[in-house]
Structure formats: structure tokens, C-alpha cells
Design a protein that fits this description.
This protein is an alpha/beta fold. It is built from eight helices and ten strands.
Amino acid sequence: MHEQIAQSLATLKQEFVQVYEGHSHIQEILPVYSSESFPINETHLEFLHNFATKNPIYHNVYEQKIAGILCKVYEGDINEYWLNSIKHGSSCQPFYPTWILSAYITALIAKSFDYKELVDIGSGDGRIAYCAKILDLQATSIEIDDVLVELQKSILTETKVNFNPICADAIEFDYSLLNLIRPIFFIGGLPQMGGDILATNIIEKISTIHLKKNTCIVFAGTHSKRQLSDNQSEGGWSSLIEKHNLKVIQTVSLPTIWTFDQLVDTPYIYTEFT
């Protein structure tokens, strides 16, 4: 099911880019109803809209039919949070979230591989962990920026969905405290912006608690040639994947706020240890 939703979303996003006439700093869409193109559990879809409604980064919402699909367009501004997120020396990337429906798809894929816990590293406003929780995964959201964690806590309070936000430096955090059995880790940060250093540290942490054989690591990459060094594949992560004996088990390209005006979306690369 997630393949169909991902393809439908990629197509819908390209149509939305053509018809969007607003001028907001950020914008994204969510279908109003489940449909053949978007066979999403209605309760889950309601949770996704609730996340946007209760999230103060969005200041406007309206309905619009796009490519025959009735959607809600959410417009917002992340400047305040973006500026605050770059003040931390070990932060790998400023706050630029994926789309809410993209976050849901990434969590759906995690569930399809039968992972039990999802740990989102550099989680921003917590949307991936939130989606994991509504899919009945054990969710943990780790974010170094205290302002973003307060944002997560306000969303938690308003939505009543506890996705376990933790304010911590992911490099220093003790993952044995989470009692993980079969986890999937999402790494928030492109390799060219320090994500490779973060990922290396997380891999070393995983090794110390003997989880490697049961763990999946997901990298957010880029297809942008100006951001890729040398001629790397796998969204810029190929060197790290090879170095740590990881095997790519799935790659999905999904809309994110930073690829709104681009023809290609953000690749999420799912890997396991060989």
C-alpha cells in the first residue's frame, strides 16, 4: 500500500507546484478523504490533519481540488524555529521538515518490515515519531533544540498522541535506556551537512548495545548535484553505507519542504547490517 500512496503523492505534489498561487514560506497538502489513489486508514488520516491543525508552524489552511483529489493546503512559516535550530554546534541540519504524509509513508514502510520501535534522530517537530505512534510502533523523538522540543510537547498535549519527545544530543544519548528490541533509526541530516558524523556515532552506539542484527537505519539523501560531493550514489550516503557494511533494502522518494520547487524529491534510504 505504501508504494501506491508514495507514487500518488509524488504525482500530486508536482501538480500542486503548478497550481499553487500562495506566497507562504512553507506549504504542503493532505488529501481530505481516503480514495483509490490514497488508500489511507481514515482514522490515521484524521490524525495527520490533527497534527497540522495543532501545529503552530501552520498559520493558514484551505481546501483545494488538485488533480481531481480534494486536499487541504497547509501554509506556514518555520523561520523562527529555523533560526533557533542552527545555534547548536552539533546540529547537523537546520529545521526543514518532510511533509506530514511523507512522514506517515516512512513510518508505514518501517511497520511493513516488522520493526517494533522507531527512533527519530534530529526529529524537528516530531512528525515522523508521531506517525510511528499512530501506527502502534514504540516511538521516540530525539531533538537537540529545546525550542523544537517544546513545540513537540505542545503538539503532544493538543493531539493526545505521546511520541516520547526527548531533548538530548543524540551523540551523547544512552540508547540502552529505551529497551530496544527491533528498532529503526531515522537520521535527520544530509551527509554533506554533518549527517555522516551523526550517523557514524549512532552506528557506534548501536554496536555497543548489540542491536546491529535487528536494526534498520534510514538516511535522508539528496539528488541535487550541487550538494553531492564526487559522484556518490544512494543520495550521497554510498560511502558510509559501504564503510559500515550496510545493505539497502528499500529506497523511496518523498516530498519535503526543501524539495518543494524541485522536480525530484528526497530519497529515504532504508538499510540493514549485513
